[in-house]
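Dear U.,

For the methods section draft, I wanted the exact inputs and outputs in one place so we can describe them consistently. I've listed the two proteins in the order they'll appear in the manuscript figures. Please don't edit the token lines directly; just add comments below if something needs changing.

First protein:
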Amino acid sequence: MAAGGITLQNLPRELPFDTLNKITDNFSEGRLLGTGAFGSVYEGVLEDGRVAVKKLVENAPVAHEQIFATEVQNMMVLEHENIVKLVAFCREKQNRLVQINGRHIIAEITETLLCYEFFPNGSVDKKLFGDQSTNIDWETRFTIIMGICEGIHFLHTLPSAVLHLGLKPQNIFLDDEMTPKIADFGFSRIFGQDQTRKNTTSLVGSVGYMAPEYLYKGEISARSDIYSLGLIILEICTGKKNSSSTAQKHARNYIEGVKKDWNLEKIMKEYTELDEQGHGLDQVEGCIKIGLQCVEIDQQKRPNIEAVLEMLNGLQ
């Protein structure tokens, strides 16, 4: 049995490029599920079910080799209810006709693809803010928050902790029962037992979700993920999207708006189904307070994930 309780039968398998090309109709627009910094994701169908196929782009902010090694190695040992499963991968050299300095030549290009479980409910972002967004009741929202925190707790408390560093609603998917699944580990870093903080010169992350110390000093720690988590909690509670611009990568305007506007009166107005359920209102108010603690500028004032879960359990 491998690390994390994974059996050999459950390990992701390697598939040929032609197979993945075929099941996505040559990576057609009709199969496109979404596009991010590392590449585009397409829907495909293997013999044992639907999958989401991520095809890495040539100009990704991190080298293909690093993304592949980071994501595949991480995902092979991550088995948890709230973590997306990597089911297959491909890293294969292909001859392609490319244009260089006005001339067309045949070049050898390494195609890198990652296949994950497919979730028809899409991401938390699409469910909350997309074209097909639905009015999710508070009980479901609270369950989603709990599940995300359980997933982060699993990552942060591994013998060699995994920091995600790219947490955002677009990277959290929902299964048929609305259970959240954290995905996209291309940015993540593995920390040894004796490490609590680290500096990096390769700053990559999502606008609106990066912690200030990471954004301005390149400093990363478990509390970098906590900052991103806090913003996600606030978005789920308020139903209002953090629409930070490149000038507001740490979302302080959004955070100040939540502090100012989301009092008990506002919560009662937005969650009318909780009018006669004081406990539910307490939960919403409590979660907003937890979210605001997580986005403190001073990282020492942010709770760790154990404390976040303890506070959430206290609201049940």
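Second protein (the one for the lower panel):
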Amino acid sequence: MATIGSTLRIAAMAAAAFLLCACSRSGNQGDTAAPVPSVTVVAAVSEEIKPTVTFTGRVQAQDKVELRARIDGFLQKRLFEEGQDVKVGDLLFVIEQEAYKATVAETKANIEKAQASVTLANLEFDRASRLVQSQAGTQARLDDATAKQAEARGELARLKAALDKAELQLSYTEIRAPVAGRIGRSTYSIGNFVSPQSGPLATIVRQDPIYVSFPVTAREMLEVQRETKGGVDPKVYVQLADGSRYAQPGKVNFVDVTVNPGTDTVLVRAVFPNPDRILVDGQLVTVVVEEEVAQTALVIPQRAIQSDQVGAFVLVVDSANKVEVQRVEVEQGPGDRLTVKKGLKAGDRIIVDGVQKVHPGEVVQVSEIKGGV
């Protein structure tokens, strides 16, 4: 039988265990209380901005010439460094000239011989004419002299034409720059045999100024025409692959006269100064067309926009720091910002960081980016 003392000890131990469990449960309940989520917000602001429209464009050289051989022969000289600038008339390639020079010399010698034949034929004709006039010669001899004179003159004319052709062929041995620009890679080395079927020997591209062409829908063309009735043309900019804007603005200098029936677009071309050769022929770029007249618009960061099956929305924090869903209509604005057409007002606080951590109706801890968007 247990003593009274041992019974009291057991009771005390049980009470201590109960208190320990109670404290443990109380601590666990405190640990499960979720902390208030933190978000970063920015206020929507009204700004004077110039409306822009973006297109996908392609850089095109103003002049692009492929240098080709016009005669057969071995490539004898290359007088340029690949990638250098060349001027109109610069000598770039020389094809072996000896055979063509020999043809010119031979043709000139044949011309001298033909000129002697013409001189002799003229003398024979004059002699036969005088004899016929004095009735000392026959008409048959005069006719024969006339035919030989015509034959000699014809041969001289043929040889002169052959000389022109031979000199032209000789001139083709020197390939010169027809336009100013930058010359590319040489596709043939010295000593290679080239001909008109060999393909381009090199390509010259005029890079300054340079064109950028981009398709514009017929609807957008009508909008631009209505907005530019005052005589102020929109400015055209190029956005490069790294997202930066090319410093030099361009100017539209050509609008195609037909619409592409497959895409319902009109090809528009703008010309840009390119002194530093940043724009390269064939390069794909984003074209930004910017109106000259500024308009007041509500601006928010692009990263604040969320979307679902209904459409675009942002998460807004009200005066009680409670999260609300706000449906919006937006369009592309300057840089990485959007202009709000409907759904917000100036001063509304939009969540830009921490959107994944919060839900509508939830109270949040707010950190605001000062200075607006």
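Candidate sentences for the figure legend, describing the second protein: The longest strand covers residues 52-67. The chain has four helices and 22 strands.

Thanks,
Y.
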